[in-house]
């Protein structure tokens, strides 16, 4: 079982590296360098003017150190076929899961080290935490991550499941309260170490392994990873799960009398297909980020217009989304005005995107008359691209 685990880890590493090479291309790395440099420059300038030893600094350090606990779940790399072929190996699963747990610690540990290194000046200079106490706090967070993964392993067996969300909330409160008295982090680290040793020496699980639950958890974990990769490149292993999002139903018309089949399909596709809705969310978040970074309304307007155009440009393939559906071909659905139907379907989404970007401008940029003019120009530009560019682009596509 240990050899099987090693082979699967090697295969998973090769697959991850293949996609990471595509994600971290030259342009993305260059953008990351600029963003990280801008963040560090702001951090250095803020450290010069920030007052020292305010009451909320230490709890803030605890919250920031806790954040890496949210990254990374237990990697098992189990497959649906294992339910049949590895079922007799229940008693030998410990040797399979141990390398998986070690592998699962790599990314959270790297994130913890980076986070701890970045906030070290703030913790020691502004929050007045002794370096030794800070080291124990970081070590306590690492032990908490090990304990979290061991509990995830415990949940894979036929036991009473322990809620990871409740555990994370408990650890958050523990680190917040512990950082009020940094000396107590030594005691917390020692307590977590004892718990981890107990989990390692005396595994608290039954002999039977919950194969169905374990496989479902692994499928969910892989989908999260594939969704992250799919933001930058095509992922053939990713499965698209289309589901209704009730909280977005307000964007759908209540009266279906004026709806035609194309409008009906396009409206629901943009809200329920994760590829489409994730694209809109991602581009909107990018517009907010660059507006906050430039801190200048003309630049924010120009870059946001570019983001709006790219959003609509990347949603153009929606017009052909149902062409491979047999029922769509069989029914007498007119396809000559699909461009206008797509415009009607995207109008509400683009209006929401404009509204969110405009609110972010009011929060992050200096308020002036020019800013409101820029908001008006952005909504006019969005409408113009929808009404003029999108139908023309659709006409050039093969119907």
UniProtKB/TrEMBL annotation:
A Pfam family assignment: EcsB
**What keywords are annotated for this sequence in UniProt?**
Membrane, Transmembrane, Transmembrane helix
Q: Do the record's keywords include Ribonucleoprotein?
A: no
> What taxonomic ancestry is recorded?
Bacteria, Bacillati, Bacillota, Bacilli, Lactobacillales
Q: Which InterPro entries match?
A: EcsB_ABC
Q: Which residues cross the membrane?
A: 20-44, 56-79, 100-122, 134-150, 162-179, 185-201, 277-294, 300-319, 340-363, 369-390
UniProt source species? Lactobacillus melliventris
The name under which this protein is listed is ABC transporter permease
